[in-house]
Amino acid sequence: MADTAREGPVGDEKVARFWRELGLPGLIDVHTHFMPERVLAKVWAYFDAAGPLVDRPWPIAYRHAESERLAVLRGFGVRAFTSMIYPHKPGMAAWLNGWAADFAARVPDCLHTATFFPEPGAGRYTAEALDAGARIFKSHVQVGAYDPGDPLLDDVWGLIADAGTPVVTHCGSGPVPGPYTGPEPVARLLARHPRLRLVIAHMGMPEYTDFLDLAERYEGVHLDTTMAFTDFSESTAPFPPAERPRLAALGDRILFGSDFPNIPYGYAHALDVLTGLGQDDGWLRGVCHDNAARLFGLSGRLPRGRLRRAGGS
To answer: What is the pLDDT averaged over residues 78-105?
Structure first.
């Protein structure tokens, strides 16, 4: 049965026009959240309550059923995305990985995502996820409240570094700091595993400068734009204008991310703000599509029968 049509946030109709005017085949969004329904319901309840890791009102802009959320992304022209899952305690990661593997099998435009937690057996289930075809991992240092250098993760990081698989890592101290957030734990991790392909979520907000430094020091370090530069984030953690020239220099390692569906504004806003950074169209093409296509080995051809024009059927 088809989903009931909903009116989306203001600006949704602009998304497809954005990438078409750049001459792109669509968008690649490296930071989207699909999870088991009962887990997502708890995440939304946490946002609704403005929990301590949120610390402010945070309305969910795309609070839809899974099938409708998929239709919205495809309608935007997002040709590849992720299912960012993350555990907050031991015993969750392997189960989440099983769910995400099944999700990727039935949703081929989703990059097979996996996760981990510092616990006995983490190396084993990470190896199993890689063997099953995981193409990206999520490490949520803030929510998990763990040191990325925990000895229980030694095998995990080694396996992932050897495989060259990217890890989207929420390690900045935004929106509120955790016991192991900030650049120092990540710097120590990279000193031990310099070949890691870390994707620093949210541009490392609010420690933007420090994480740009790490990207300059380690060629495997990337940054995603998730929520950075938006009005919502600029009001509390503005990106330093003096650092904008560094965005151009690192333009081949910056990736578009949205945090869909858990954003308190329309999807188009996350794209609009990129155009105000003083970068050229080549930079925008790289950030919104080409850099991720290269990182994940995606072809230029759209998934057959998957994408729908914004507002179309």
So the answer is: 98
